[in-house]
Structures are given as structure tokens and as C-alpha cells.
Amino acid sequence: MHVVSSGKELRQNSGKFAMINLVKTKKNNALKTAANNFSVDLYSDGSLSNQIGGLANILQTNGQGIVGGIDSATWTFWRNKFREATGTNLAATPNAANAATFKADMNAMWLTLNRGADKPDLITFSHDFYSLYETGEQQLQRYMDADMAQSGFIGLKYKTADVIFDDNTNFTTTAEKGYFLNSDYLYVDQHKEAQWTQDDEKKPVNQDAVVIPFYWMGNLVCSNRSLQGVIFDAA
């Protein structure tokens, strides 16, 4: 990532404090853009240039794939859990009956991911899956006061896991997806010298500009795929 200021911009914002404000603003905007792009990458399959291997790479809808150099077709312990949602285009109609069917699929997925004290602690759903799950939960709402009743659910839970909506969950496909994650075995690993690390200011020989490079190098890594799961609607 590079923060670029033209010579014209720098001269228009001349003066010590004005220049610092210009550079600071551009740096903050660039880091926000990088953070937004990184949040998309977390769900990617890593197929694009300079893209990390995200959840679509680690948790595949057939449980297999080569992750971290380990081929799960050969080493079966390295397969993630997976389940296709029951029914045809279930998530497109968020009614009580479909919500109950989906909850049964979630229960079945949950049981495959329990190992002693190990359990999923985060579930991230695409739009229609989240709406379907929320539909099933709304009939169970109980309120302690009027203010809470007016605001509705602030957050959802499923057993011991937080349930969130992230529109990037099915980033690599149009099919609805839900990831059942055990964060004890998922890490964003960064190189110690490239953690959005700022380099020295550069002056191109063929431009009237100043360039400040920022470096990041790392990947999303998993130390136990068998305790991670994905549920999907293939219809």
C-alpha cells in the first residue's frame, strides 16, 4: 500500500502543520481502505493476486482441499466439517418452518464440532442465513424492560457461540454460507517487519510527488481444520 501526495498538493498545503495534516489524513484513509479490503480477504479463497487464503480456502464445502501444504484427500484428519442445508432454496423464505429446519441443521453441525472443552465460539452468516436464524429466534425473545423491547436483539447467540452477520461470508459464491468457527485454532499471522509498517518517504525521479510505502505480509492460518465447519445452501 502506498500513500501518495503530489507536489501540487503539498505546495497548496504548505506550512509545517498543514503538511502533517495532509499526510496524516491520507494515511488514515489508506489504512481504513486497507482494513476494509482485508475484511473481504478474510472470507476469500486466496485466488487473487496479493490475497490471503481466507475462510473459503480453509473451510471448503466438500471438507477437502490443500491447506497449509497438507492435502486432506490423503490426510483425512485435516478435513473441515461441512453440511448442505436441508431443503431447496431454504434461506430465501425466512418463515418459522424453514427456521426450524435450519436450526436442526445447525444442531447437527454443532455436534460434529464438539471435542471436550472445544466448541465453536463464533458463527458468521451470510444475509439470508442470518435472517432465517433471526426469524427462528424472534419468537423466543423475552424482555426485561420497554427500552430493550424497542431496540430488539442487539446480538444473537447460539449455544456458546456469538452469531453475527457479515455480507462477505459468501464472498466467493452466490450460495448462502455460515461458518462455525473455533477461534482457538484460527490466527492472523503477520511478519514482524510488515504489520502495516511505514517505510521512509520516497521521491520518484519522474514525478512531482512524494510516496510513503506501507507493508503488510501474513496470512490467515488454522491449526485444526476438523474443529471448523461450514454450512451452505447449494440451491
Structural overview:
- The structure is a single chain.
- The protein has 235 residues and is an alpha+beta fold.
- 30% of the residues lie in helices and 27% in strands.
- The chain has 6 helices and 11 strands.
- It has helices at residues 7-12, 16-41, 55-58, 96-112, 127-138, 146-151; strands at residues 2-6, 66-67, 70-71, 81-84, 122-125, 156-158, 161-165, 176-181, 186-198, 209-222, 229-233.
- Strands 4-11-8-5-7-6 form a 6-stranded mixed sheet. A 3-stranded antiparallel sheet has the order 1-10-9.
- A hairpin with a 2-residue loop joins strand 2 (66-67) and strand 3 (70-71).
- Helix 4 packs across helix 5 (127-138).
- The longest helix is centred in the N-terminal third of the chain and has 26 residues, at 16-41.
- Residues 142-146 and 148-153 have low confidence and may be disordered.
- Radius of gyration from the alpha-carbon trace, in angstroms: 23 Å
Q: What is the overall pLDDT average? A: 83
Terminal CA distance reads 39 Å
Helix content: 25-40%
What's the story with the biggest beta sheet?
Answer: 6 strands, mixed
Shape: elongated
How many DSSP-defined strands? 11
Task: Describe the structure concisely for a colleague.
This protein is of the alpha+beta class.
